[in-house]
Structure formats: structure tokens, C-alpha cells
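Practice problem 4.
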């Protein structure tokens, strides 16, 4: 029987450094986090979960394994250089965003009988997605394989983007692009949205309607509360259906104030991939369907005459019960001495039916 005691716990941490032959990393930051609450009914608040290493989850409950899903990726993963060529996102950014992925044992449950080899999967036997050879689920023996995958987003405090950043532009009909800025810090921040350049043969503005001859609105300042998000819409026209529109988002101290040097900053490119094929909205003609006039013919219920069925009078013939005469059986008896002994007579009083 395998007895495992959780003497240590581990966390996932990350550190940042600019690329180079000898990168210098900054201080590491904890990435993983756990549910918090009152411990054992007390008033002290602490973690209710922990990532314990060395649990024998693999090789039929005999070998521990930390996991091979510890990875990090920048967002976006690919960026364009000054010549428009795409490459890996290894450039220095004022406000980079990363995604970390890892596995841990926070959801693993100790087997009820203490034996990690006595594992039974959850679910009914032969249910979809379940091992056909597994036996019935045993309470307390079904949670010891719960090594799950988790992820976290790392940012310096600003996350910017556009949920629909690829649209074919038109020279007369403005296309609308939503651009968002999320403040992930614990204080209010003010950001300046700026359209960095105008598309060829068109106009990009934060307003859809403009007074004739007026310049487009290319800059707006927005204050964002802590842990909140704001959005602004860019309306763009262009003679080039695939024209790009860059939008810079930079931190300012207050509305109408200069940009903070070294402050939070990001850039969103509308129509970033100019090689995307043009999407044609096919004109779908709805054929006119003529509804033919359908007549419901009047169905006459013919009058069905029920013929009168005469019940013939059946004469019950009078059956005469013939009078059956009951025959009298008499027995003979000898009379007294006045009648000779050799003479038999019938006595009515001695007969019975």
C-alpha cells in the first residue's frame, strides 16, 4: 500500500527579460493562485487548495509526474516588422501580454483506502468516453487522477485589442471596428486612443458623421476604472479594401495631458493581415413563391337512410302440454277371511303414485 504525505507544495512563477546573449531577468512573480477561505471553521483566511508534488498518479498509481504542459506564449504570437513581414513576437513592447499554461495537482483527492493503485473512473460501466474494461465506480476511489490543466494571463496592466479586426473597406460606406482597452491594475488609469495614420483614399475617425470639410476625430482620452474595460469605435473608409489602420493606446496622467514616458502602451492594427482573401457577401435572391389558391371542396354528407327493419311478429305456437296420467301402482294384498286366500284384489286406499 502506498502512503503519501503532502510535505511540500509548489507554485508556478514567471520572470521577464529582454532577449539577448545574456538576458537579465526581473523579479519572478507568482502565476498560480488558489481558492481562499476560512480554514477549519475559523476566522483566519488562507488557501483552500495546494499543488502537492510527488503524487503517484501514473503507471497505474505507482509513479509521480509533474506534467509536461508548462509553457508560455506571447499575445499576439506573431507581429509585422517595418516592411510588413510577419515574424515571432520577440520584440520589446511597452505593455506585453503573455499566456502561461501548466498542470498541477490541486484537484487530486487522496484515495479513501489509502491505496493509489485502486483507481476507478467516474461514470457508469460502458458509458460513452469511459474505459470499457473499467469496473464500477467506487466512492472515494475516483478522484486520485485529477491532475488538470490551468492557464493565466500575464500583463503589465493594459490589454488592448479588437474582437473583429479584419473587414473589407469601402470608399463610401464606413466600416466600424471596435477597439478595447482593459485596465488590469487596481487604480484608475487614463488612456489616449490615437489613430496613427489614415488609410489610402479614405478616412478613419472615432466619429461616424462629420461636418463637411472638418478634420476626422483621431484622438480621444478615456479614464478606465480599476479592473475595468472601455471600448471606442473606429469608422474607416478607403479606396483599398485591405488598407490597414493602426490605433495606438497610451497612458496619460489625465485627459488632455501629455503621454507618460514609460507608461502603459499598446497598439492595435485593424486589418493586420493584408493577404486575407476578400470576403464577398453573396447576394441571395429569395425567389417569389406563389401560394396557389387551394380550394377546399365542400363535401356533402349524403343522407343515409336507415331502412326501417320490421321485426316480424313471431307467433309462439301454443304448445299443449298433454295431460300425462300418473299411473297408479298398487300392490296386492290379501283380504280377510271373507275373501278366498287365492283371490288378489286392488285396494284404492293402498295405492300410491
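Answer key:
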Amino acid at each position: 500500500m502506498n502512503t503519501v504525505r503532502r510535505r511540500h507544495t509548489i507554485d508556478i512563477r514567471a520572470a521577464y527579460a529582454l532577449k539577448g546573449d545574456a538576458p537579465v531577468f526581473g523579479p519572478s512573480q507568482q502565476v498560480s493562485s488558489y481558492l481562499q477561505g476560512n480554514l477549519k471553521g475559523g476566522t483566519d483566511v488562507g488557501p483552500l487548495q495546494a499543488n502537492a508534488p510527488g503524487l503517484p498518479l501514473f503507471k497505474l498509481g505507482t509513479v509521480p509526474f509533474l506534467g509536461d504542459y508548462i509553457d508560455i506564449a506571447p499575445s499576439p504570437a506573431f507581429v509585422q516588422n517595418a516592411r510588413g513581414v510577419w515574424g515571432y513576437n520577440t520584440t520589446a513592447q511597452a505593455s506585453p501580454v503573455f499566456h502561461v499554461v501548466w498542470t498541477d495537482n490541486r484537484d487530486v483527492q487522496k484515495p479513501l483506502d489509502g491505496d493509489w493503485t485502486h483507481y476507478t473512473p467516474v461514470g457508469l460501466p460502458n458509458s460513452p468516453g469511459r474505459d470499457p474494461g473499467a469496473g464500477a465506480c467506487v466512492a472515494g476511489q475516483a478522484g486520485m487522477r485529477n491532475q488538470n490543466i490551468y492557464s493565466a494571463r500575464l500583463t503589465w496592466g493594459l490589454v488592448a485589442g479588437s474582437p473583429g479586426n479584419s473587414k473589407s473597406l469601402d470608399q463610401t460606406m464606413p466600416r466600424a471596428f471596435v477597439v478595447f482597452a482593459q485596465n488590469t491594475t487596481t487604480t484608475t488609469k487614463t488612456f489616449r486612443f490615437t489613430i496613427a495614420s489614415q488609410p489610402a483614399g479614405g478616412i478613419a475617425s472615432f466619429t461616424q458623421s462629420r461636418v463637411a470639410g472638418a478634420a476626422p476625430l483621431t484622438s480621444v482620452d478615456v479614464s478606465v476604472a480599476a479592473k475595468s474595460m472601455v471600448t471606442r469605435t473606429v469608422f474607416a473608409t478607403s479606396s483599398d479594401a485591405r488598407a490597414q489602420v493602426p490605433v495606438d493606446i497610451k497612458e496619460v496622467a489625465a485627459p488632455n495631458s501629455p503621454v507618460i514616458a514609460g507608461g502603459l502602451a499598446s497598439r492595435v492594427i485593424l486589418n493586420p493581415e493584408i493577404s486575407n482573401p476578400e470576403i464577398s457577401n453573396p447576394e441571395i435572391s429569395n425567389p417569389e413563391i406563389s401560394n396557389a389558391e387551394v380550394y377546399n371542396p365542400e363535401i356533402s354528407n349524403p343522407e343515409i337512410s336507415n331502412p326501417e327493419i320490421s321485426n316480424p311478429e313471431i307467433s309462439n305456437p301454443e304448445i299443449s302440454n298433454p295431460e300425462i296420467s300418473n299411473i297408479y301402482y298398487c300392490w296386492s294384498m290379501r283380504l280377510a277371511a271373507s275373501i278366498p286366500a287365492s283371490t288378489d284384489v286392488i285396494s284404492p286406499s293402498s295405492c300410491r303414485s
